[in-house]
Amino acid sequence: MLRHCPPKPSLYRVSGFVRWGPMNTGMPDPSIELTDVTRNFGAVRALDGLSISVPAGSVAVLLGPNGAGKTTTVRIITGALRSNGGTVRVLGEDPMIEGDDLRGRIGVVAPKPAMWDRLTGEENLSFTAEIFGVPKSTIYDAAERFGITYALDQEVGGYSTGMRTRLALARAVVHDPEILLLDEPTAGLDPESSRAVLEMIRELAGKGRTIVMCTHLLHEAEGIADQVVLMGAGKAQAAGHPTQLAAAYMKHPKVVVDAENRPTLDNIDAHPAVMRAEWNGALHLTLEDIDALPDLVTDMVNGGSRLTRVEPQLPTLEHLYFEMQRSLREES
Amino acid sequence: MSWHRVMIMARIDLKRLFKSRDYWIPMALLSGIFFVIMPFVLLSMITGITGTNIVEQVGGVLNALPGPIQDNLRGDTPEAQAAYAFAVYLLAPIAIIVPLTISSAVGAQTIVGERERGTGEFLAHSPLTDTEIYLGKLIASLIPGYLATAIGFTAYSLIVNFRVGPEMGGWFFPTAGWWLLILWVVPPFIAIALSIILWVSSRVKSTAAAQQAASLVSLPIIIASYAIASGLLYDPTVAAFSVGAVAWVLAIIGLVSGSKALSRERLLGVGIDG
């Protein structure tokens, strides 16, 4: 009765290389391109043939559990870490050769943003402006953007976690970088500040900046990701626009249905359009095809159901993430 | 490499350091004890000696000093000669101990401290080159020690001239040997110690480990530099200049090789053994 149709991820993955490019040939040249990159820490292989391509002016979200290699990827992009193999190109340059210049064009927010605690927020930002060779006036715009201006004259040691994160975000954009690498940027932020960060990402992407955001908070990637890269065990297990991934991994639409007279829906899983039916507060249906929904509703009404709810479910990243993980587990 | 960015790095460290009372108060105390309190008390006691027996004992002590020192002693009385010997020859180690101790304490935590605080991650992703970071930290470690020495040495000179000068017929300090010590010999010895300490600081896992290692490194250097400084003061000749020159060469070699120990990966804590 309940069927499972495995997706065909191989359509999107060739020898472990996950590429968005072939399906988006009109996209600009990649700002960041990692090809078959490996990195070992002793006996631990943190990156194991990672390949990703992030077009200029797009937002890529690296999703994955702890230890998936997200932070190592960020560090390799800036050239702070050497790769043990593979090729890395950032803004057309090799970070291991042109790293010092490249880092001047990149802004980074680390997972646990650290500051010089004895210095004030203003002093921390001023030194950043000096290091990046931009006028001091830029620090006030950056601070204003993240609502931390009021605390600039305080020592950072007295900041809360949220204030530190906001200062770190301001620090990352002081020099108006071409690439912004955000490693768990909303960790420790209240909902309002988190929203400000996501708005900032949208705004910067709108101005042509390339953004890579690492997160394990799936809802954060909703609506801002041009590309989602699902990372696991140091590899990109799948990548693409959320819609493309949904098409690949969540082919069968879901609909939530409810009725005043619920028993009339008991045999709905026998309907040819329905692949799976589960009661979970309401009736959650998995359909063969969304086009079958009007006929299904007609049949339910004709069968005597007094429907109170027919709600097609748009796939969220969270659904997608777990569907992809399940699919990849089954495949392996 | 940009010296402007080197100085930015140095200023960050110095500003942080001078805002940290727990760093500079002990340093100021150390400098005050060695350059001001100890000399003042000792010289006051010596110049205030009365009583035949004590004067005879002081005379005996002076006779035990090396020949070159006895030849160069100034003063008409045993008390005056004893005060001169103390001021010019026997307190020489303070010029080495104070800057070395202070610079070692600062240098030991400078790189590992960035890693512990997490600010190493920011520096690793910054456009500063490894050399700029290293030199910035070297300068930031040198300045507190040498600044303390400069201020302390000035105070020491005033104390010596005020307490012993009247016995010598006027101000006489610093002598040529002390100028040579402060300007030519002390700086390279601090640099040698720091080249080793920064190398250690970039490789150990914690500030505590860095400070333990730094104290082990500093001790033989203090002993060696004390011996050399004493010898230099006894006889500030061409040989003394040569000793300083050799120290400078060793310092430059140490700093060049030490600079290679700092890498971005080490700022991130990668490849640091427990």
As for the number of domains of chain B, it is 1
CATH class label of the domain at 9-105 and 177-248 in chain A: Alpha Beta
What form of chain B results from the Cα inertia axes?
A: elongated
Task: Indicate the percent of residues in helices of chain B.
Answer: over 70%
Strand content of chain B: under 5%
Low-confidence stretches of chain A: 1-26
Number of helices of chain A: 10
Integer average pLDDT of chain B? 82
DSSP strand (E) fraction of chain A?
25-35%
Instruction: Tell me about the largest β-sheet of chain A.
Output: 6 strands, mixed
Radius of gyration of chain A over alpha carbons?
23 Å
N/C terminus separation of chain A:
25 Å
| Proportion in helices of chain A | 25-40%
What does it look like?
- The complex is a heterodimer of chains A (332) and B (274).
- Chain A is α/β, with parallel strands linked by helices.
- Among the domains of chain A are: 9-105 and 177-248, P-loop containing nucleotide triphosphate hydrolases (Rossmann fold), CATH 3.40.50; 252-314, Alpha-Beta Plaits.
- In chain A, 31% of the residues lie in helices and 28% in strands.
- Chain A is elongated.
- Chain B is mostly helical and 274 residues long.
- Chain B has 13 helices and no strands.
- Chain B has helices at 3-18, 21-47, 52-64, 67-72, 78-90, 94-117, 119-124, 130-163, 165-168, 176-201, 207-234, 238-259, 264-268.
- The mean pLDDT of chain B is 82.
- The A-B interface holds A 41, 75, 78-82, 100-101, 103-104, 106, 108, 110, 112-119, 123, 127, 130-133, 155, 171, 181 and B 5, 8, 11-12, 15-16, 19-20, 117-119, 121-122, 124-129, 264-265, 267-268, 270.
